[in-house]
Amino acid sequence: MKRSVIQVADHVKPDADIVETARQVGDLVVASLQRGETVAVSLRGVRGVPSSFLNVLLSVVAAELPGLDGERFSMEFDSDIQRELFSRSRDAVLKSRQRAG
Amino acid sequence: MRVNLAGAFDDRDQDIEQLIAELQPIYGAAVSQRWTLSCRKCTYLGPFAVAMVHATWAVGRCRDQSPKIVLPGSPGELVKFCRYSGMEHEFRGGASPDVDHPQNEVLPLTKFSTANWGLLVPLVRLVKRHRPEFGETGEEVLHGSLFEVIQNVCDHSGSPVGGSMSARFMSGTNQVRVAIVDRGVGVLASLRTKYPDTRDILHAFERVIEGNYSAKSRPNNMGLGISQLFGMIPAHGGRVTLMSQNGVAFASDGNRRPVIRAMRAAYPGTALFITLPA
Questions:
Q1: How many helices (H) and strands (E) does chain B have?
Q2: How confident is the model at residue B215 (pLDDT cuts 50, 70, 90)?
Q3: Do A89 and B219 touch (CB under 8 A)?
Q4: Most buried one in B73, B176, B212, B266, CB count within 10 A?
Q5: Beta carbons of B226 and B145 less than 8 angstroms apart
Q6: Apex CA B84: angle with CA B78 and CA B86, to 5°?
Q7: Of the candidates B83, B74, B97, B9, which has an alpha carbon nearest to the alpha carbon of residue B46?
Q8: Are B147 and A16 inside 8 Å of each other by CB?
Q9: In Å, what is the CA distance from B191 to each residue of A59, B37, B152, B205, B231?
Q10: What is the full DSSP assignment across B137-158?
């Protein structure tokens, strides 16, 4: 299965809205998944990733991959803080989807 | 109407509460009622005072109140601060402050209504300029936690003037002090749109600090922002203070649990203040 890596740093621009960037990256992930690929999203080189970015990204991906299946979708981090934020966002997104039924 | 401020308004909770109390006549002013806020006799203003005065002035303009801010004429350090903080530029039409000046330890007033990636870059640059050894972890904490606040202002505040941010690097204590202030509906009103059983502001604070109580639970806001701040900042040796209506909550590395209590005067919006050791 082909593996693609999306570098978030390539999409970060000073004037770009954070939430909009998350949607764009999420759409790229979904497109890759729909092509049957496994996808990694890399946060390397991005400083100060807020949870709003991760929440939106994971919400978009979860619409295509409901459990955020770790075999098809993964993330690469630059720091333990990013990893911790991702973990919290992931739990919140999955819980929110459960509540929504 | 004229309100005269005097003395020092530093960044301690009691100074901020005092400022809020003294601004009450302006908060209650009718649309089109003109007012002047004189800071002539102030001896010290911290970034929280700057952000609050700016938000007050911005709302005054929105409400056709022809607001005037009289800046201090002395002491010299305070006059310099007014220049570097952007107060002179905003309220008197003076030149924009030179952010790269070697003596400038102040982030000029930053107004925002959306959260863009570049919004916090000047603040992080300010910190790194004065503390080149500021670690990557510290940068992540500062950057990430402040974006949480900014996103909350953009998503939930309903502030007609967006948010105001002011920051300062305190060379004596090696601290970064950041204030982010809005004049929106406040935490209680925001939370009650989805959780009408929220009793009062103190109950609202308990819920948002606990987490998973986003007013609207949209994908970009899962209700973790304030909770993360109250966890992350003290864990890195800092202090976070949240004020909204007549409630205040704060947490520092000295608290086991956040302290939540009533304030004597109400702030018509939400204000958050972070102190980080660099």
A1: 10, 8
A2: very low
A3: no
A4: B176
A5: no
A6: 105
A7: B9
A8: no
A9: 22, 32, 12, 10, 20
A10: HHHHHHHHHHHHHHHHHHHH--
Average pLDDT over residues B121-149: 79
Contacts with B137 from chain A: Cβ below 8 Å: 79-81
Q: Report the gap between the CA of B77 and the closest CA in chain A (Å).
A: 32
What's the whole-number average pLDDT of chain B? Answer: 86
Distance to chain A for B228, nearest Cα, Å: 9
E strand or H helix at B264: strand B259-277
User: For chain B, first and last CA: distance in Å?
Assistant: 42
Q: What is the pLDDT of residue B13?
A: 85
Nearest to B249 by CA among B241, B212, B269, B257: B241
Chain B CB contacts of A52 under 8 Å are: 115, 147-148, 151, 220-221, 225
The residue to which tokens 């991005």 are assigned: A46
Contact, B198 vs B191, CB < 8 A?
Answer: yes
Q: Is the pLDDT of residue B261 over 70?
A: yes
Inter-chain residue contact A18 with B222, CB threshold 8 Å: no
CB B216 within 8 A of CB B238: no
Within 54-93 of A, beta carbons closer than 8 Å to B belong to 55-56, 59-60, 79-82, 85, 88-89, 92-93
Q: For residue B2, what are the contacts with CB-CB under 8 A and spacing of at least 6?
A: B35, B36, B37, B38
Among A15, A48, A89, the residue with its CB nearest the CB of B140 is A48
A19 shares contact with chain B (CB less than 8 Å): yes
Q: Do A13 and B118 touch (CB under 8 A)?
A: yes
Separation of alpha carbons B147 and B125, rounded Å: 16
Gap between the Cα atoms of B74 and B79, Å rounded: 6
- The ipTM assigned to this model is 0.89
Q: What is the pLDDT of residue A4?
A: 95
In the numeric block, which tokens belong to residue B14?
Answer: 């009691």
Both tokens of residue B51? 């952000």
Q: CB under 8 Å to B135, separation ≥6 — which residues?
A: none
